[in-house]
Amino acid sequence: METMSEDYVRTARAKGTSERRVMVHHVLRNSMLPVVTILGMDIGLALGGAIFTESIFNLHGLGQQIITAYNQVDLPVITGIVVFATIAVILFNLAVDITYAFLDPRIRLA
To answer: Is the pTM of this model over 0.85?
Structure first.
């Protein structure tokens, strides 16, 4: 709603741009930046929350596996899961950055 009252949106409407084009190219693209940021940060939280969720509901997954490996002092398994989670977070952050370049014309990949 805040984006819809910005100067560039009013200017686009004043120039006679269709309402659909104003909404998609001006309002939606600029209002998606905070949403993409929050989604990118939530991916890391979801991976960390998997440990607690799997423990509470007795599900078998990476969270349960890392707890079992920790109790048995199985360092290679712990290292593998941590490296996997790290790579997943890095890839999701890369996807967020690429999405930024698509959404905001001021941000360009060089």
So the answer is: no
